[in-house]
Design a protein that fits this description.
Elements (H helix, E strand, L loop, with lengths): L1 E6 L13 H11 L3 E6 L16 E3 L2 E3 L5 H10 L3 E5 H6 L12 E3 L4 H5 L4 E4 L1
Parallel strand pairs: 1-2, 1-7, 2-5, 5-6
Antiparallel strand pairs: 3-4
């Protein structure tokens, strides 16, 4: 069974954790042999930007030193053979250029999402 994961909500739980839990589960599922595809849309297209970093965050005496490295997590999925798409319309709305993005990202227009979804047995929307 092939599953397409559409990730729209960005930075979910990244204050508490070092990863986006959806990206983490995609790595785990791929490691278990599942056939996965990922579409990054809306604010989640920001995950594809190479030059992003999260400085340490302090709340009272608590200091979070290990910020999320989301572009690395997405690159890791691509390295495992997961097809990762970004919605080009959403990149354009945010002023992001292709040279700013990690390698291996495939572009898809918002209008072409239904056809892409048709190539998968299940579609999960996060």
């Amino acid at each position: 069974m092939k599953t397409l994961n559409i990730i729209e909500t960005a930075y979910r739980a990244t204050l508490e954790e070092q990863d986006d839990p959806v990206l983490w589960i995609m790595h785990a599922l791929k490691g278990a042999g599942a056939e996965q595809g990922v579409v990054l849309r809306a604010n989640a297209v920001n995950y594809t930007v190479k030059a992003q970093g999260v400085p340490p965050l302090a709340i009272g005496a608590r200091r979070q030193q290990q910020g999320p490295r989301l572009a690395e997590a997405v690159s890791g999925l691509i390295g495992k053979g997961v097809e990762v798409y970004a919605v080009s319309d959403d990149l354009t709305e945010r002023g992001l250029q292709s040279e700013e993005l990690i390698d291996g990202i495939k572009m898809v227009r918002k209008a072409d999402l239904p056809a892409l979804c048709g190539g998968y047995d299940q579609v999960w929307h996060w």
